[in-house]
Amino acid sequence: MTAGRDEFELIEALRTRFEAVDGPPRGGDLGIGDDSAVVTLPGAGQVVLATDLVVEGVHFDLGTSSPEDVGWKALMVTVSDLGAMGCAPSHALLSVAAPAGFPIERLGDGVAEAAAAAGCTVVGGDLSSGPVLVVSVTAVGPTPTGAPPLRRSGARPGDHLLVTGPLGSSAAGLRLLAGDGTAPVPAALAAAHRRPVARLREGWVARLAGATAAIDVSDGLTADVAHLATASAVGLDLVVGEGVMAVGATRDEALSGGEDYELVLATPDPDRLREAFSAQALRAPLDLGRCTDRPGVWLLDGEPLTDSGWRHRF
After folding, report:
1. Per-residue pLDDT averaged across 160-169, rounded?
2. For 41, which of 23, 31, 96, 275 is 20 to 30 Å away at the CA?
């Protein structure tokens, strides 16, 4: 691999390589390029699959997160991808590579807590030694009834964009936790970084309430909404007001901090979505703007949108 290569260029290169062998997904299946894959198992119908990993020094620091926090986060960031499809996890696999002496049992406690909160069962995995802590979780769930899984590619011109909660909490929490200790760290911001919560109910309700597309905010709002717009071939006219920024977060943290795991939703009928959320006692989603019929023209508060979210480099 070429040093400094953009992760999304690499993903596209791998997708092309894999499809050159087996061809693109068929029969309503969905492969590389969305939050989760949708596959048809022989004789068993479709399931939804997602995998993710967290790496010490990249996604967490053991100086600011406990082993239990790391386990919680690893499970939640994975099932969040199913939430972005409007689906729910049923089972998960856990794989851990850890240095000698690391308390893997404590990490397992965090995974177990998160699995219980997400309503899934951990059924296996793998263990290995390694120079730094790496935790990988794979989650699977059935495709739901009532409406098909949400995709990034379903948004249409004129759709409203909403987000399930304020943004920037995790980045603000990390900033304060990693500081010199003189500034107090609000509990809500610390928890947002250490123990994010996948918006599974929100995704499920949005799917049934007519949402056309969704994505979870993992790499930052500007990066993730751009992924949705690209997949849907729509333009963006975003308006990010004060209400979209979490209390204690800067505007930059709200726009590009990432790891919030709130859902960005596209819908032609925002009132129906709000009513559905209210009926389920969920927080009212916040307005982000609209999709337009000008693909590639992405505006934020009337100015060209700069994609400033997180990207891995290889």
Report:
1. 98
2. 96
